[in-house]
Design goal:
The chain has 360 residues and is an alpha+beta fold. The chain folds into two domains: 2-123; 168-358, Histidine kinase-like ATPase, C-terminal domain (Heat Shock Protein 90). Helices cover 64% and strands 13% of the residues. The protein has ten helices and seven strands. The chain has helices spanning 2-33, 43-70, 77-102, 104-112, 125-193, 197-217, 225-240, 268-277, 314-318, 321-333, and strands at 223-224, 247-253, 261-262, 285-294, 297-305, 338-344, 350-358. The strands form two sheets. The chain has a five-stranded mixed beta sheet, covered by helices on one side. A two-stranded antiparallel ribbon has the order 1-3. Helix 6 (197-217) packs antiparallel against helix 7. The mean pLDDT is 80. Keywords: Kinase, Membrane, Transferase, Transmembrane, Transmembrane helix. The chain crosses the membrane at residues 12-34, 46-66, 78-98, 129-148. One of its GO terms (cellular component) is membrane. This is Histidine kinase.
Length: 360
């Protein structure tokens, strides 16, 4: 709203200055070229100049707000050209009629050529050409201004639609991420209930704390990076409860010191991917999670072993959903401010994710 008001005020100022400059040209510069200090111009001259200014203002705004929007922008080009030419003829004869009404030709002849007889049929060609030029300038400027304003309005409308589209898409992506996260976590807790009730209760308490984060922070556009790191720690601790000694965890998480903000739950899919596809009940494995903070730049890295997954299992069907959603969220929220690489290692034994994120 403030931007629109500022733009409106600037437009009014530009229009006012433009018409003031026109008045200066018609009221001062032209008379000065006629040695105004030596010749007393008749009052009819000033009446005509005022009439020209009023006529040009009417032509300017009629063309800008009526003819261009209703004719030219409706693809009626030939009709518009016909109206412009017809308007030029009408403008010319209107000026001539006004001159005759106030006896402008006679008074100007008496001022500049008092010793010669007056010929009412003779006109000053250069004066008519100057008036025609003023008409064309008024039409040209008003048409250009109307087209620029139309382009600006279309661009603002397009940007607003793009913002709404991105907002809707981000809401959709978040809606996909949340059920995905809870589905995996509840599966883990369900497994614990058959092994250790106490651990299952502890897991429920941690899940409750994480749910509060999801319910309150995930509804915001951004959250503190420190809260996101705490959420990651809770998630890892929850995952530890179901791991065996065959899984080695290598966790390195820097503690945020500044009040940087980040999109909530942005890093969760990378962790989910590690714990879902990087552990085995039979073979030894390791998971590496590293988060470094250097100024306003976050470096996040995960590495995990690759184990075959049953193609009929829900995990196989959901494989990659979180990563694809996160990649899309990054492109929408941090365009040009992130670098993401993920894939298999050269020996196809590990899956890695490297994310560099600028939080400026």
């Amino acid at each position: 709203m403030a931007i629109n008001n500022s733009r409106k005020n600037l437009s009014i100022l530009i229009h006012t200055l433009g018409w003031v400059m026109l008045c200066v040209v018609l009221m001062l510069l032209s008379p000065l070229s006629w040695r105004m200090g030596e010749i007393d111009l008749p009052v009819e001259y000033w009446w005509k100049q005022v009439f020209l200014v009023i006529s040009l203002i009417a032509i300017f705004y009629a063309n800008q707000f009526l003819i261009v929007p209703r004719i030219l922008l409706k693809s009626k080009t030939y009709i518009y050209l016909f109206l412009v030419l017809g308007g030029g003829v009408l403008f010319y004869y209107t000026v001539v009629t006004f001159e005759q009404l106030i006896q402008y030709p006679l008074r100007m002849h008496e001022t500049f050529n008092p010793d010669r007889p007056f010929d009412p049929g003779r006109r000053w060609i250069y004066g008519d050409m100057f008036q025609a030029m003023l008409y064309l300038v008024s039409i040209g400027l008003s048409t250009s201004l109307a087209l620029v304003q139309k382009w600006q309005n279309d661009e603002e409308h397009r940007q607003e639609l793009e913002k709404q589209r991105i907002k809707t898409e981000l809401s959709y992506l978040k809606a996909q991420i949340n059920p995905h996260f809870f589905f995996n976590t509840l599966n883990n807790i369900y497994s614990l209930t058959n092994l250790d009730i106490k651990k299952a209760q502890e897991a429920l308490l941690k899940l409750s704390r994480m749910m509060r984060y999801v319910l309150y922070e995930n509804q915001k556009e951004t959250t503190l990076l420190s809260k996101e790191v705490d959420f990651i720690r809770d998630y890892i601790e929850l995952m530890k409860m179901r791991l065996t000694d065959k899984v080695k965890l290598h966790i390195q998480l820097d503690e945020p010191t500044d009040n940087h903000t980040i999109s909530p739950m942005l890093l969760l899919p990378f962790l989910e991917n590690c714990f879902k596809h990087g552990i085995s009940s039979q073979a030894e494995s390791s998971i590496h999670v590293k988060l470094e903070i250097m100024g306003k730049t976050v470096f996040f890295e995960t590495r995990n072993h690759i184990f075959p997954v049953n193609t009929e299992s829900p995990e196989a069907k959901e494989h990659g959903i979180g990563l694809v959603n996160t990649q899309r969220r990054l492109s929408l929220l941090y365009p040009g401010k992130h670098r993401l690489k993920f894939g298999k290692s050269d020996d196809n034994q590990e899956y890695y994710v490297n994310l560099t994120l600028n939080l400026e």
